[in-house]
């Protein structure tokens, strides 16, 4: 009887989730200051869009500066350099999960690019656009489309700034041409770095194609080189795309994964291991005179009723507390089938979905994020992860696996799914495993080889000492990806575990560190986190009771898990070298 009740409950919740309203409360600014005056923002805290860094620390800044011009950035950097104060750059939406924007010390300074967001020039003849560092993906897409041009690849989420996405290596999906990373379409970067007395303590650097040595460091910088004030991107003439979603069994996914990416320029996959299904997005260019005015407004990125989001979260928390795997799988199946029926947010004419393929201009199909923009001040609707409405709260693991070994990785995940058929339902509640294609980059901290980027989004408890259902399966997949298959982590996502010794995987790491010390010899734009992931000081591992539950460590003793809750440190099932927190029951005695 209880299972039937939960079925009805989740049907109602999913129905509410797809009742999309026209307005939405925009997210709060991730920077909050206790003292605000016309010329001073002091006693501040900084976080990310999810209101939680991996280790849940609160980052503080003595001062936040909001420059509106490059000259004002110069003044801010000069003042902080003169005082030897630590600096970090803050962005409007702050969607990076790691602590890249967290300054150090009691007198740390954050320089926000919130108002440094103008489009400086669209060169139609030369096919390029120059923007300030705080310009968003949405803004760039719209500006170039108005000029009949296109930036062929962007992340799917348009709530990123150009400075932020370059700093973290954000990308779309493609194995064709230069690939899907935005930084590989950069032709010039202007940035402000610390300087000496002879420079007035701030130096404006213009990095052009003739200076690939420095430009390749700045393209993916982790924010440790300085403040990106201007970026110039190479464009293409506007083109049309054709998109069809096709669901199939996943039994031949290992064989298909490479050939599919080589067949479709913008293709990707959504994998549902518990359902034994994969959804192929067949996405290619078509002639510009092809009829169609399609539009993509991805449903999970739309304004969603806040009450529905809170109820869905409450449902998931109850399923976790009761170890209700069946309930999770029912919810996941309902959610993914609803998305499929609604074509994931695709429409043929901007209003309704009629049939596949959906054909339209690239700018209308490549990215979305309508929940960011509205006039609703009452939070009737919100982005699903908005911390103010207590909706989604999740971990996100994103690892790129070399094409040469990706089949074996897929097969290992399938073996885990066979051993625990319901284990991946928790991922499917967040629309499964997104698989995007990436290519080797000239950027020193870009991708090192052609590969597939696997994005896993899954439940995170608001209590850091509370284990998750199938904790061990997710941990084993993460450790397989990073260690067994040598995966490279996305710099703007992931838990600490994924960054363990990751810097060693980059061929040009020494050149990056050398340029980092050249641009910022005193390390004023570095913090403890970046020093750790760059292998300069300490380790990303944090060892304490319960540390493995949050991915702060790989368990080596039972107390790193949750023995009082029945979770103990054991070897992996497929990857025996893994050490994971497995549920063995409260009566188990090691």
Q: Which strand order spans the largest sheet, edge to edge or round the barrel?
A: 19-13-15-14-22-23-21-24
Task: Give the amount of beta strand, in percent.
Answer: 15-25%
Query: How big is the Rg?
Result: 23 Å
What is the rounded distance between the termini? 37 Å
Q: What is the global morphology?
A: globular
In helices, the fraction of residues equals: 10-25%
**Whole-number tally of structural domains:** 3
Question: And the CATH topology of the largest domain?
Answer: Vanillyl-alcohol Oxidase, Chain A, domain 3
Describe the main β-sheet briefly.
Answer: 8 strands, antiparallel
CATH architecture annotation of the largest domain:
3-Layer(aba) Sandwich
**What is the number of helices?**
13
- Uncertain parts: 1-22
Secondary structural class:
alpha+beta
- Please provide the count of β strands: 26
The CATH class of the largest domain is Alpha Beta
Mean of all residue-level pLDDT scores: 93
How would you describe this structure to a colleague?
- The chain is an alpha+beta fold.
- The chain folds into three domains: 31-112, 2-Layer Sandwich (Uridine Diphospho-n-acetylenolpyruvylglucosamine Reductase, domain 2), CATH 3.30.43; 119-237, Uridine Diphospho-n-acetylenolpyruvylglucosamine Reductase, domain 3 (2-Layer Sandwich), CATH 3.30.465; 240-460, Vanillyl-alcohol Oxidase, Chain A, domain 3 (3-Layer(aba) Sandwich), CATH 3.40.462.
- It has 13 helices and 26 strands.
- It has helices at residues 2-17, 70-82, 137-146, 162-168, 212-218, 253-263, 306-321, 325-341, 406-419, 425-428, 471-484, 509-519, 528-533, and strands spanning 31-37, 40-46, 59-65, 87-90, 109-112, 119-123, 128-132, 149-150, 186-194, 202-207, 227-234, 236-237, 240-249, 268-272, 277-286, 295-296, 304-305, 346-347, 358-361, 381-382, 394-402, 433-438, 451-459, 488-489, 567-571, 579-583.
- The strands form seven sheets. Strands 19-13-15-14-22-23-21-24 form an eight-stranded antiparallel sheet.
- A hairpin with a 2-residue loop joins strand 1 (31-37) and strand 2 (40-46).
- The longest helix is centred in the middle third of the chain and has 17 residues, at 325-341.
